[in-house]
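Q: What does the assembly look like in three dimensions?
Context provided by user:
Components: two
Sequences:
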Amino acid sequence: MSMLIEVKDLAGDFAENKDVAKKLRLNKIMPTLADGEEIVLDFSGVSGTTQSFIHALLSEPIRQFRDVALEKIKYKNCSDVVREVIKTVYEYMQESLDSESYEE
Amino acid sequence: MKVTLSNSDYLRNFDRFISSLDFSDPEHLYIYSHPKWINVHPAVLALIVVMAMRAGKQNVMFENLTATSGSYLDRMGLFEFTHQESPYTIQKKEESGRFIPVTVIKNSTEQSRFITDMIPLLHLPADKTDAIKYTVGELLRNVLEHSESTNGAIVAAQYYKKSNTIRIGICDSGIGIKKSLQQYWASRSKTDIEAIKWAMVPGISGTTRKEGGTEDNAGAGLFFIKSIAQIARSYFMIYSGSGIYKLLLHDKRIEKPRLHPDPDDDRHSERNDAPYLQGALVAIDLSLENKSEFTQLLSAIREVYGRAVRDRKRKKYKEPKFI
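A: Here is the predicted structure of the complete assembly.
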């Protein structure tokens, strides 16, 4: 079974509201991953997004569930901008998984 | 407090405007202006509104406001923050579609509404809207999340046909960048200019020292905006406390400007002796001439961002102990 989330219905055609991202993360993404289920984030109708929005949506699931999150969260109908921002967050989150804090 | 408006208060020569600022006596604001011509960046208006809010409507005084072009101040909504009535009669209808008057944003709902309404007001080409929404969205969010300003974020924007740029100013009266970084980055934010530059390094957030940030913050916002400005060949300035960092335009002959994780490596000017601004002012001139796609730009930013994180990780690797 998988959960389908229509992002535009909640975040509008430019997804930038982090409060919306946070609600989605806490109420839908985290519990669904905890149940071992798949999530499909459908971005149809969303022209763009910000790094902050995607970070608020995905960083904690990736940090907490690691490979499970990377395998179980899927993306549909992404514009090029949305795709690039998701790729950015994926990249730096995976880079930072094994190193906890900055040292000077 | 005193501010003087001239006939060329743009980012290119913003130092003149900065030197006219006087933040002493916060209970009164005197606005002086060029007698014949006023030309100001929207950031100037956003800053004046912050100062006017501090002084209180009753205590804001325009002196010698005689320039015909001063009607711009009226169109941009400045008189709504003063007790003094506008001496101008303007036909708002004529000017619609080119500017966003000074607006106060206090929460994320107002921010989302503003971003939705902004593009039709500015009549911008469809292929440029994502970069502008992105920039404004991230800058407003920065203020709402980190500034602790009770007045929210003050924003204004103007499209300039001749230079084909959109100029945006966002100001707040919050704790300032230095203070917002000090909990986790005291050694990197001893001065205002140090703090401003550190805030632009990819992955540096005022909310944690953890790589990858917290669940809500990554510390990427200002690096992205600086990079967007750089690739679009645009001015970008941050002013907070006594510090000012201004990204300068790079040589037009360079087709693909290199992005740097360290703001010191960018062509810029900086100072740490400006009149002390409580809060922060961010200004950007986004050129719409740039032909590269926003996605290409994001891709370039992703590469530099990833490299910066990897380099930082590498620095922490332990060396083999050869004896």
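Follow-up: The first helix of chain A runs from residue 7 to 11.
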